[in-house]
Design goal:
Layout: H1 2-18, H2 24-27, H3 35-45, H4 56-64, H5 70-82, H6 88-100, H7 105-117, H8 134-140
């Protein structure tokens, strides 16, 4: 477990070194309606703090769900599975979601189908798209 923590910390530090200006406060300075500005607002709204660094997962969460509720987080996992992204963490989260929210299975299934209908975008570097309007990013990748 200790080695995993060290690896995570190493990745976090590497990200911070390569993206020193991507804090929530710096992101909200992007032009109105851009992915960057909306991501900054998202980070502040979800109480991640002012100096938190934006990540790929934050961009995916914003583009797909726009919130961080448990149900929406699980729905994002189903969406990404439909979009072609596999992983043990994703499958584990989905299993937990189905067990804890069985009444939301239809919603999760719809998100899976939405992910299948969207163009592959889970592996795109969303942080390079920060200057684009968020609606254009969603439209380009057919994100619903």
């Amino acid at each position: 477990m200790e080695t995993m923590k060290k690896k995570i910390e190493k990745v976090r530090l590497e990200f911070e070194r390569n993206n020193p200006k991507l804090t929530a406060l710096n992101l909200i300075k992007y032009p109105e309606g851009t992915l960057g500005q909306q991501l900054g607002r998202f980070l502040l709204r979800t109480n991640y703090g002012q100096n938190v660094y934006a990540s790929h997962d934050d961009a995916l969460q914003l583009l797909i769900a726009g919130s961080t509720s448990f149900t929406d987080d699980i729905a994002v996992q189903f969406y990404l599975l439909g979009n072609g992204s596999f992983g043990l963490r994703r499958l584990t989260a989905m299993a937990a979601g189905v067990l804890l929210k069985p009444h939301k299975i239809a919603y999760f299934h719809q998100k899976y189908k939405d992910g299948k209908a969207a163009l592959r975008f889970y592996d795109v570097d969303h942080l390079r798209l920060l200057h684009l309007p968020i609606d254009r990013v969603r439209e380009t990748f057919m994100i619903r």
